[in-house]
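Give me the fold.
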Amino acid sequence: MEKNGKVFIQLFRYFFSGGIAFVVDYAILFICKEYFGFHYLLATVLGFSVGLLITYLMSIFWVFDKRRFNNRQTEFLIFAVIGAVGLVLTYLFMKFFTDFLSVHYLVSKIFTTIIVFVWNFTAKKLFLFSIKKTDR
């Protein structure tokens, strides 16, 4: 399937690829917590990290058609920084929903994912997968 520069198509593709990453992330969270006895925040970090890698690969190969950087190391570094902010947000929202509002950790993950999804898409679109103003 050919890449498309329309934001709606990118958002749909990002949502779809994010859905795949979410299923893997959520499964890792559940398995690590329920079967291996990890603390829910550690399991959250592990799941998020794997989901981040899936999202990166799908973003560069399918979701976005414009790339700000030709250097893959620079691109991945910025992607990782955006991901690190997303991870901090995930950690804080998981802790807030689960520990302070007493929401079950799996439900907290759903709320948190929705919030962090908006950050991730916006930041990646602005900082990574758009052309520079001088390139237009």
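Helices lie at 7-34, 40-63, 72-100, 105-127.
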